[in-house]
Amino acid sequence: MDNQSSSQFSPLQITFTGKRVGSLSGFVKLLASWLIFIGAVMLPVLGQAQTKGSSSGQQKDVIPFIDYQNLGNTQSRARTLASPANARVQGDFPDLCSGIYNLNFEDPKLVSGTDRQAGAVYTFQNVVTLPGNVIHARVTIESVVNGSVSLFDNTGDGFPSALQPSFLPEDNRASGQGFSIFNFEFLTGNYDVLNGQITEASAITIPAFNSYLVDIDGDSWVNEFQAVSGGGTVTFGQGATETIEALDDLAPFATRFQDKTQSSLDSEGLPIDVFHRMVRVEFTNIQSFKWKFGVNYASSITGHSPRLFSFYVLCIQGFLSAA
């Protein structure tokens, strides 16, 4: 028989929030007091929550503005702009950019040649980091034909991570093409941040990345176009088959993607969410490639405005493709 067994039972003794209650009936009274207190506190709160929201009693859903700059950056879990604290982020959805590297073309250094002229060579530090390797890029302006490169990298429009040259069409030309060709090489080596020189440079392969040929439009005198060599699968953005056509081009490009509307009213600037003005190109196991951008002359004029181009290389998880 243990110490709790006895033929004489005393009233139940209970300790509650540090106070001894002499009997079960006393405990019940104290518990009832606590329940009344809690009810007095919670009823106003519940009433306020019930009246929050629309007149129908249902709280309005929030559709946030998409921060396309951070799409594809699964590690940042950056929230969408102007979104509530509990808004869903990219990490809440299936990762459609899995295995795709994001590239970053910022702060170019001119290492040889004349700025914006054929033969000019630029380098970019750490465009992407692979396991065990920091990758730099070397970009050479191979040619400039029937026009001029007015900016090698336009940082006033679009996005810092993209390479965004401007091309100035030639005056009084009514036919043919005006364009520039950039050659890209990916390298490892020691990067000098002062002059951009890469010593002990060695070619290296990037397993996979997506490029977006952005803002392919035009005006009454020219149709913009872009083309790349070395790319794989090509996907038109949603609605792009109505505004962009695929045309044969000289090797090594095979195909160029050219505006067919001679209008830019629906795509001012360098938007990456206007899918009907863009094409996605998937690159796999790439050490180097070429990018051609420029205009097809439709009619003659004096005083062209510079045409804006963008080679955007962050995976856009929200990219909508043509049906």
Describe what you observe in this structure.
This protein has 323 residues and is mainly beta. It is 9% helix and 36% strand. It has one helix at residues 24-51; strands at residues 14-16, 19-21, 109-112, 121-130, 133-145, 147-151, 166-169, 177-191, 198-203, 206-214, 222-228, 234-236, 244-248, 255-259, 279-286, 288-297, 307-308, 310-312. The strands form 4 sheets. Strands 3, 4, 5, 8, 9, 11, 13, 14 and 16 form a 9-stranded antiparallel β-sheet that branches. Strands 12-15-10-18 form a 4-stranded antiparallel β-sheet, with no helix packed on it. The protein has a 3-stranded antiparallel β-sheet with strand order 6-7-17, with no helix packed on it. A hairpin with an 8-residue loop joins strand 3 (109-112) and strand 4 (121-130). It is globular, with a radius of gyration of 32 Å. It starts with 13 loop residues before the first strand and ends in an 11-residue tail after the last strand.
